[in-house]
Amino acid sequence: MQKITREDCIQLDSQDVLADFRNEFNLPANDIYMCGNSLGAMPKKAMAKVEQVMLDQWGASLIKSWNIHGWFNLSQSIGDKLATTIGADVGEVVVTDATGINVFKVLAAALTLNPERKKIVMEGSNFPTDNYTAQGLVKLLGNQHEIVFAETEQGILDAIDDNVAVVCLTQVHYKSGRLLDMKSITEKTQECGAISVWDLCHSGGALPIDLNACNVDFAIGCTYKYYNGGPGSPAFVFCAKRHQGKALQPLTGWYSHDAPFAFERDYRPASNINQMLSGTQGILSLAVSEIGIDIASRADVNEIRNKSLNLSDLFMRLIEQECAEFNFELITPTERARRGSQVAMSHENGYAIMQCLIAQGVMGDFRAPDTLRFGLTPLYLRFVDVWDAVAKLKDIMQQGTWQEAVYNQKHAVT
């Protein structure tokens, strides 16, 4: 195989149909940002949006903003935009609350559809919030339910049977970047009479998703990764229309009432997607999240996916070409159809190596015990960035500069 050069990467950038989107983000001039799978970059229009909401809306219009600036329906209007990126219809998505809260909502709602069944299938190595939230819900319900943890896609399929109430899975694994087959798993789930819940935190905005084509029941996700909504920006909930008004979530705040401004003593659930809301929204973060969602909805998701796969192919090939002697072990699947938009690899000195990379301007991240993660966000990462990141990694390994970080870690004052 012909050796890849930096000039090859520059040529790929010159042909990139998504290249102009990079100009919409505020990126440090001297850093290579490869952590968009954890926190997306800041859109340049975000600050102006904050000023608009703070000064023109809250400052000038005050409480009138709930009506004249559409604050009260902001979760729904932004949700309709986000819906276009995940294969959902208008009226099936709301942007609201935090991911963990939304996991609680949809898992509780899903269990009401199968009250006689007591098994929940999940992936044991999920991002902990999903598992912890499910465990908390099970305890709240009197420990009547059993969580069955599987570790592989085949293990998940094998665990789904006629005793399962809900299958709750993350589409792209947060650590390895492995992509589950949503369609086949959902089909098996529903053949067995169970309800599907999908976590899209590491796939939404990064690859084509078609919830309705896969007949998914519920989904949740965050907006601060590939949607670039900002730190702690609100999450989202998808509820298929066939379940709206039937599968009710239990955090029944006034926003989810059928007539919120009637101020009735007793709860009457909204019969539409509004029932997935709870209380008053954080308008500032909600409004800012719309900027990144707008960008994602304008980009062609198939072009995003194609560039993502090409970036990860390049990264993997360069690790083999430039760093084969340094004992990195690839964790992310090499098959294009089996991975999301990141590359993860392990090394016994992974923490120290990542600290050195960050110090030299390559911002990836580390996950215990030994995983280095590199997010590949197609809207602003260039092919030449991948080349330069691997070149810096090679230099760190050749020079042994990572050993100082090991020394500092071992001798840190606690």
Automatic annotation (TrEMBL):
Positions bound to pyridoxal 5'-phosphate: T99, F127, P128, T129, D130, T170, D199, H202, Y224, W254, T280
Pathway(s) served: Amino-acid degradation; L-kynurenine degradation; L-alanine and anthranilate from L-kynurenine: step 1/1; Cofactor biosynthesis; NAD(+) biosynthesis; quinolinate from L-kynurenine: step 2/3
Residues forming coiled coils: none
Positions of modified residues (N6-(pyridoxal phosphate)lysine): K225
Uppermost EC category: hydrolase
Matches recorded under Pfam families: KYNU_C (PF22580)
EC number: 3.7.1.3
SUPFAM superfamilies from the UniProt entry: PLP-dependent transferases (SSF53383)
Cofactor: pyridoxal 5'-phosphate
A GO MF label: kynureninase activity
Parts of the chain that traverse the membrane: none
Gene3D superfamilies associated with the record: Aspartate Aminotransferase, domain 1 (3.90.1150.10), Type I PLP-dependent aspartate aminotransferase-like (Major domain) (3.40.640.10)
Entry keywords, A to Z: Hydrolase, Pyridine nucleotide biosynthesis, Pyridoxal phosphate
Keyword Hydrolase: yes
Domain of life where this protein originates: Bacteria
Swiss-Prot/TrEMBL catalytic activity: 3-hydroxy-L-kynurenine + H2O = 3-hydroxyanthranilate + L-alanine + H(+); L-kynurenine + H2O = anthranilate + L-alanine + H(+)
Description of how the protein assembles with itself and partners: Homodimer.
Family to which the UniProt record says this protein belongs: Belongs to the kynureninase family.
Function: Catalyzes the cleavage of L-kynurenine (L-Kyn) and L-3-hydroxykynurenine (L-3OHKyn) into anthranilic acid (AA) and 3-hydroxyanthranilic acid (3-OHAA), respectively.
Protein's recorded name: Kynureninase
Gene that this polypeptide is encoded by: kynU
